[in-house]
Amino acid sequence: MSEPPLSEFELIRRFFADRDRGPGILLGVGDDCALLAPRRGQELAVSVDTMVCGTHFFHDQPAESIGHKALATALSDLAAMGAEPLGVLLALTLPKADEAWLSAFAEGMGALVDQFRVPLIGGDTTRGPLAISITVLGQVPAGLALRRDAARPGDLVVVSGALGGAFAGLRAEMERRDVEEGPPSGTDPHCQRFLRPEPRLALGKTLRGRVRAAIDISDGLLADLGHVCQASGCGARLEADSLPQDPLLADWPPGEALAAALTGGDDYELLFAWPARQRPELRPLAAALQLPLTVIGEFTTGPGIEVLDAEGRSVASRGQGFDHFAADD
Ligand code: ADP
Ligand code: MG
After folding, report:
1. Ligand 1, pocket residues at CB < 6 Å
2. Which of 31, 61, 127, 221 would you call most buried, defined as having the most Cβ atoms within 10 angstroms of its Cβ?
3. What's the CA-to-centroid distance between 109 and ligand 2, angstroms?
């Protein structure tokens, strides 16, 4: 005999109602609205992100990794503003109330909720094609948010972590799916890169007061650096050899590896404009955070982004609305 289907309220109570307490939360799940009390002198940082089945994740992807990634990518936006998370809201559209799926999904989200102490303070649950929308609320001291429009010519372009790993992992998974059936492995290192990004919240918080411009790399280095350049009214010059390429790209042809590091999306590392005179302070900061911070070039008066090889030759560039690759070996 099958169990009676879960009602909407039972579903919320069982999977999403018990992680709603935290500093600044006066009222969590259960009323018409949650009530928050941001600290004095703080600005509220707000953002929403949606992931749709088949577009942003595979239909057979482990539910735990979907929960992780949905929240991790939403928190990455707070990290990129230098904001501390206050709380998150989850709008979930489900084709059916599958308890095993919901339990794994809630576990994936819950692990991050616990890790970063960001309470789940409300949401919405509806029936329809599988989609997950997460709203994040954060706080940042007034005037210190890291904005896209505040880079200056002469600032160093710095990125955290490694680039191109999520793209390499996704490509390996697509190739696997061409020849065999079944969900992506929850443990294969290739899959980890795109299933399990890490929001760089500690880095974002540390950067405020030290830098004024930052962005998270979700669409690829050139695209996201392009957003900063455009908003700031400047350009950038990058050194191809200094890009921190993900180890997963080690056996790729050099030109393809470079292209992956420049344009592969989904890494969720932070890119920021570091004042050149403070360059010596980068290394101790990276050591304290236990996170590589690599100078990959500098902001220029522009326009456009130029990527140079060791001999100073242009290997890639990005101008107004076009991308061009000279490297093709
Ligand atoms: P309303 O009809 O007033 O919008 P709902 O019935 O949608 O209220 O939700 C009841 C309570 O449960 C609200 O506090 C809402 O924020 C919360 N809630 C609904 N869905 C979720 C979810 N997926 N995760 C967390 N909280 C949820
Ligand atoms: Mg509602």
Report:
1. 12, 16, 29-32, 90, 92, 120, 122-125
2. 221
3. 20
Nearest CA to ligand 1 atom 14: 30
Distance CA 52, CA 11 (A): 21
Q: Which CATH number, 3.90.650.10, 3.40.190.10, 3.90.550.10, 3.20.20.60, labels domain 156-317?
A: 3.90.650.10
**The CATH number, out of the four listed (3.40.50.300, 3.20.20.60, 3.30.1330.10, 3.40.50.620), of the domain defined by the range 8-141:** 3.30.1330.10
| Interval 175-195: pLDDT, tens | 988 998 888 887 787 888 889
User: What is the spatial distance between Cα 210 and Cα 312, in angstroms, rounded to a whole number?
Assistant: 30
53 C-alpha to center of ligand 1: Å? 22
- Give the model confidence (pLDDT) of 151-162 as tens digits: 999 999 999 999
Beta carbons of 301 and 153 less than 8 angstroms apart: yes
pLDDT bucket at 320, cuts 50 / 70 / 90: very low
Closest ligand to residue 91's CA: 1
Edge-to-edge order in the sheet of strand 120-127:
42-52, 131-141, 84-94, 120-127
